[in-house]
Amino acid sequence: MKTALITGANKSIGFETAKVLLKNGYYVYLGSRDLQRGQQAVDTLKAEGLTAVEVLQIDVADEQSVQQAKENLSQKTQSLDVLINNAGILGSYDQKASDVSLATVREVYDTNFFGVIQVTQAFLPLVQKSDQGVIVNVTSGLGSLTLHSDPNWKHYHV
Ligand SMILES: NC(=O)c1ccc[n+]([C@@H]2O[C@H](COP(=O)([O-])OP(=O)(O)OC[C@H]3O[C@@H](n4cnc5c(N)ncnc54)[C@H](OP(=O)(O)O)[C@@H]3O)[C@@H](O)[C@H]2O)c1
Predict the structure, then answer these.
(1) Is residue 135 part of a domain?
(2) Does the structure show a pLDDT above 90 at 51?
């Protein structure tokens, strides 16, 4: 059975992605920074008959949490077929570069940027043990330099 880890999968896009992968025969490690919220999501999926799923506690912005999650997952599986870096935050949207607080910028970078790097580095050895390992980075138009450089883009002035 193929395996997948999705970060921030206790709700929204991550949760729906878990559902799709489960319906396609994957065993899903449902990443959640809060164990209780993650377990609730797992219970919801199981109630729908999607049983090949368990919660993996992981806060992508917390180095210790990422390392602990890596150790926990390594004890459960020899390889990881799909890693989906889904967890992400907007910060206090919308905000201007001219007055956004540095604390907000740091929080967003710790999650959306450094979080992706540290999660990828932590799980890469497991992905490399898969015959067809895949890493998916979920992003947004808000991360596009091309769009941000286009004065006609609806968020250009945000
Ligand atoms: N929704 C959109 O229109 C849209 C458009 C383009 C791209 N995206 C991208 O899609 C991804 C998911 O977005 P979404 O709309 O589903 O967002 P969402 O509803 O806000 O859900 C975000 C998920 O990430 C988790 N998360 C946040 N910080 C985390 C951290 N430090 N460690 C682990 N998990 C963390 C949240 O956990 P908690 O429940 O604990 O907060 C939640 O499970 C993001 O990367 C986002 O940039 C979304």
Answers:
(1) yes
(2) yes
Query: What is the per-residue DSSP string for 104-130?
Result: HHHHHIIIIIHHHHHHHHHHHHHHHTS
Q: How many domains does the chain have?
A: 1
List the CATH number of the domain containing 48: 3.40.50.720
- Measured in Å, residue 6 CA sits from the centre of ligand 1 at 11
Query: 3 CB under 6 A from ligand 1?
Result: no
Does residue 115 carry a pLDDT above 80?
yes
Instruction: List the domain range (segments joined by +) for residue 112.
Output: 3-148
The answer to whether residues 7 and 65 touch, using CB atoms and an 8 Å cutoff, is: no
Does 48 contact ligand 1 (Cβ within 6 A)? no
The tokens describing 39, both together, are: 């377990």
DSSP 41-58: HHHHHHHTT--SEEEEE-
Ligand 1, atom 6, lies closest to the CA of 140
For 90-114, what is the mean pLDDT?
Answer: 90
How far apart, in whole angstroms, are the C-alpha atoms of residue 125 and residue 67?
A: 13
